[in-house]
Amino acid sequence: MRSRTELVGHFSISDLENLSGIKAHTIRMWEQRYGILRPVRTSTNIRTYCDEDLRRLLNVATLCGRGYRISRVAQLSEQELSQAVMSCCDDAHDHVQQVNAMLASMLEMNELHLCKQLVWTIQQLGFEKAFMHVAYPFLARIGIMWQAGTVNPAHEHLVTNILRQKLMAATDALVPVQPAESLRWVLFLPEGEMHELALLFMNYTLRARGHHVLYLGQNLPSAELEAVCETYKPYALCTVMTAVPERDQVQAYIDRVARLCPDTVLYLYGPLAHQENLVLTSSMVRLRLMTDFLAVADQLRPTTVAQ
């Protein structure tokens, strides 16, 4: 194990507060009274915290949130702390603690624990609620850490691949829908766009509600859409714009898609769809939240599968 002097401090105490949900004054008290964290001081005497500090704090916060006394938790070794977290996260409705536990497993690169936590949550809540209430907040916290430069591509790939596997397996387990019996959707990502998780979740939720989906996935050249629409005749297209196209090219892109498929509704989701200056036609619908998309899918649900 590396010594403390070899561990680079990435986080301020306010970073730890935002990532763990534990107030800064509580973190300071735990640090001073129980020694759960050991910050490194900069040349200007400012405390900074490393990845190990964040991982330990997330585990400590998880246990304290489940009723453990901090004096007891502070005495646990790293291995005992990790094992205690795995055994105590038995409340599927305590979403904050579930997210904290998954973050700690991710930082440890502990794929086994991460998969177990996710599978258990899905079993308890159901697939869709597990993704909405746990997986999505988990990804949002990772996004904050990514912006702060405190997670690396390996962390992101670990999480993305696990969630992608679960989404594809759950989708494959659904009963197939006949195109003639439901609305038809085409789901795709713009050319160069590779962030697929939101689109995969949309694919699952549509199929689960009896819609028929032609899933075209990542990196689709827009020119291909014209032939797709002529052949498949979908009710709607749906795309997610996370990193592509460039911000100043979004308007031109959605206008091009609308020209290629003039008789089709175009649903737009993702950070780049949130630009306030976009000019939308009557056939374009901007979805700000995933719950907005779920509301559309519910509203248009075929009557034969309506609940």
Automatic annotation (TrEMBL):
Domain HTH merR-type: residue ranges: 10-79
InterPro entries in the cross-refs: Cbl-bd_cap (IPR003759), Cobalamin-bd_sf (IPR036724), DNA-bd_dom_put_sf (IPR009061), MerR-type_HTH_dom (IPR000551), MerR_fam (IPR047057), Meth_synthase_dom (IPR036594)
Keyword Cell membrane attributed: no
Keywords: DNA-binding, Repressor, Transcription, Transcription regulation
Pfam families linked to this entry: B12-binding_2 (PF02607), MerR_1 (PF13411)
GO function terms (MF aspect): cobalamin binding; DNA binding; DNA-binding transcription factor activity; metal ion binding
Name assigned to this protein: MerR family transcriptional regulator
Organism placement in taxonomy: Bacteria, Pseudomonadati, Bacteroidota, Cytophagia, Cytophagales
